[in-house]
């Protein structure tokens, strides 16, 4: 099951050379290259990655990548009564997700699910965005319209995207039709 999830978490192979040209974070740790003086390091000018905006695998030029700059206290931007803001913040910060566990059976029932409701413009989407900022996690936005209209397609797409979210430890926002 873990191998299956890891294969889903990486982009589809191009050309099928299988020699590991895909740069993974653990394989590209800059500390391991310190002290190499004479040997130049050659890399591809791009890395494969998943675009959270486009919801598809893309090539990203390395020179355009930069570290994520998280807000210092994002929950202050949430316009809610202080008691509700503290409740959301405490729920999110106290939730623990096991680092080593990747097996679906061991993770079953361990998620934090929040149902936000209200009129359009009341801050439901902003709340999810700020929770992602607070926890320093990626936000995977899904709309019901993107999943399709056939039961089999909805099930397949939702399972695939939730598997990605589980591997990436992402916050998932399922929003109404845009």
Automatic annotation (TrEMBL):
<feature type="domain" description="ATPase AAA-type core">
    <location>
        <begin position="114"/>
        <end position="177"/>
    </location>
</feature>
<protein>
    <submittedName>
        <fullName>P-loop containing nucleoside triphosphate hydrolase protein</fullName>
    </submittedName>
</protein>
<dbReference type="GO" id="GO:0005524">
    <property type="term" value="F:ATP binding"/>
</dbReference>
<dbReference type="GO" id="GO:0016887">
    <property type="term" value="F:ATP hydrolysis activity"/>
</dbReference>
<keyword id="KW-0378">Hydrolase</keyword>
<dbReference type="InterPro" id="IPR003959">
    <property type="entry name" value="ATPase_AAA_core"/>
</dbReference>
<dbReference type="Pfam" id="PF00004">
    <property type="entry name" value="AAA"/>
</dbReference>
<dbReference type="InterPro" id="IPR027417">
    <property type="entry name" value="P-loop_NTPase"/>
</dbReference>
